[in-house]
Input
Amino acid sequence: MASRKLPVYLLLDTSGSMAGDPIEAVRQGVTLLINELRGDPMAMETAYLSVITFSSTAQQVVPLTELAVFQEPTLDASGATSLGDALDVLLSCADRELCKQSGDQKGDYKPLVFLMTDGQPTDSWEKSADKVKSKHWNIIACAAGSGADELVLKRITETVVKLNDCSFGTLKAFFKWVSASVKVSSQSVQQVAADAPVNLPPPPPGIVIVP
Amino acid sequence: MISNHSSTKRPLNTDDVEALLYGAGLFERLVRTYPLRGKSWEKSWDKLKLELKNDSALYESLCDHFIHVFSKKLINFWHQEVEKGRLQEIKRHINFWISQNNLPTDTKVALLVNTLGECIRIRAHLRHNEKDVCCSSIPQSVVNNFFNNVVKGWLDNNPSNQEFLIKTAHEVVAGLANSKSTPVQLAEVQVQGKNPNKMSEIQLPAQVPSKLPVQPTPQAQSVPQAQSTPQVPLAPQAQSTPQVPPVSQDSQKPQIGQTSESLPEKAQVLSATEDSDTLSPVFLPNPDVTTEKTGSPKTEIDASGIAEGEKKNNVDSSTSPSPSGNTEVQNDTPQNIVPELPKVKPALLWKYLPVPEGPDKHTEFDDKTKQSPEGMLILGGRVRGKKHKHEGTNCDDWFEFDTVGKWSIFAVADGGGNYKFSRVGSQAACKGAVSYLVETLREITVIPKKEITADIMNDDDIKAVKEAIHESLRKGWSSIEQALQERENSKSHYKILDHRDLTLRDLYSTLLVCIHTTIETPAGNRSLIFASAAGDGIVAVINGDGDCNLLMKPDSGEFSGEVEFLGPKLLTDASLLTRTYPFAGTIKALMLMTDGVADDYFPNNLRMPELYADLVLNGILPTEHVSNDIIEKQLSETKISDINALRELDCLVECDRLAENPEKVYLMSAAKYADALGIQISDLVKKPGLLAASLEISKRPMPGVNERAERLILWLDSYQVKGSFDDRTLIVMAGDESK
Output
């Protein structure tokens, strides 16, 4: 009997603007995230991770996978920023991979989604954004650098953070924060009050929560 | 890992760990971008130094750790080269290292020693015809050739290198001999800081003793420590990179002997003069081996986690045949020589911390036994969940039960996990509800009914009972409010809450209340049960036929994880009506539990019978009285019709009990038993002869634990379900009503 999962989706912008150091930093960020989480028994037992990348199109590069066997994807940056496509992929993956509550069956825990982008969407994204927002999942959107539009992200989720730049240090700090958030979520996963907001640890310097 | 620098005294902090992981990633990029073979490797080294210079904070912390990855990379690469007989390439590398003027001599030497030591080890293995995955493909002639031309040549030409090599080799031997306890203990001592768990995650796999050969040679002593001189970008502290011999435990001994044998005699004499007391091994045993010996939890996990990463990296890293470095920081075992990927055992990550001292301390566990007015057994138990043990916090669950007149009254509660004093709330709620019901039900007797129909719910006596159970939830809430008042202005609470006053929210808890009585009908006695709940947890009845009835409404919403707590919102008449469920009929068992147990048996409607079967099989609940004829008949309908075959069954599962002194506990599993019989678990409960037959099985669960309550606690505290780390609380009432 499989236990309930805490699904964690990473939506990563791999458009051309991320090429070079930023994409490398993101890749290392994912590594850092995995290593951090692998040391936490509660995350190890509940958190499942998936990576969805988006550039000219979006694809799920790692299906929802147990942490213990998660293999980091290769990330290459090129192309446009199909945010709408990414959100559609997220919705269809969640639909496929998650066990929903029905009747007497308890479902998986509410998904935790981290979305990171450094630019403006290049496709039509509004409808998908509304659809995702209506799910009331725990979504943390991250506007990396000055090119990203926080207002776009606000349409997807109330929780938007801004990274001042896409430097190694900042992105590293972001992923560190992501891992702390996943840990907190996996610890309190069973006992979150219905009316409590998503429980995030305070972000480190360089990451600003957009009000 | 801990370096051999003068800064050794400084324990790793969180930033170091971060930097370490970051550095490993950076390095991996480097080796992916630049092939290790050929001259571009040297260029890449320089480029790396430049990159690191840009970030001085990172550079600082990386100095200690970064080279660890690097020398390991080299070792792996050299392995490949040795295998292919490309000795020139290695010679060139060695010369390159030696010519690096900005590196301290001890660093250079240590790097070489680590690497050459590995070659010596290989040779030792080959001499003994040991099966060693890492070198099985290398012809002995190649190794000999390498040893004679490269190792010896290097030694002969440089007396100080020789001296250091020999000395280190001795330490290796000593280290292997002592390795069973030393490395882990030393590494543990170093663990400090805000997040010890995370530190040790990094430190332990490397198995590095804190005391490393800091001053290997007289020459080296005079060399300034590289990390304190910003001009020197990186000090490859290879001593701090133990090349973990990937040997099985069996093969260690011959290796030790052989390693020292293969050293030149002159050198052995030299080393005898060294003060070896201050030194610790450089080469350390395979982490897996050590883990076995010491029970150190972290090592194996990391080994496995990394192994997984390696698999993939080997595939997509075309330039580097060796495992890539992004996760290597945590592990020294060259992955290409790990024969089998170890299984991830999250169980080993768990720590045990006792219940902390402080206000409102709850006990680690609690149990209670009583007889119901009908003579049924009532058993209650609560254990602290793994999360609380891991974090050193209190159990948030509570349970109470009592009997009065013909009534049995039960309550379980689960304090909100995010609130530091929710245990106060769960305790107050249970006590308030139960004491209210004891007083109220004392006055209420349910009169005999002609038959059990929905209509009886409108009888006056039953209505009064429903009123009482509703009111008991309200009493539970007012008791929480009262508990808050009692702690008003409490300084100790104020302090623990980081200097703020206790609020009602800190005491949030769920509450499940259930009452049971027996009513007489012409058809016989029947159980009458009411259950009412605020928040999650389960009340389940296994009825006389062995079917499950949930006296609950399952969670609402698309996904789980949102819990309602007891509070005014849930206590309106309308709300209480929707939360109260009756049951009337015959029962085998009535079970009340917090979600810590309920979640381990979901979907609850299907799996509550399994919970009941597990309790019976583990001797927590009595088996029903069944005649031998029935036992034989029911058994004959299964795969195991022969009583001897039944006795030989092994239906135990091994569990790790997380405690101050962790222990293995063997529990009987209904799933395994049903499987052996070739039947559904639900049939186990429907055919009591099969549960009774289990007493014949000779392999017994929890041997030596006699009291039922004690067995319940041990079972609650030990059974393992992935992702289950909540407090577990269970009250169960069972037994034969007619007796």
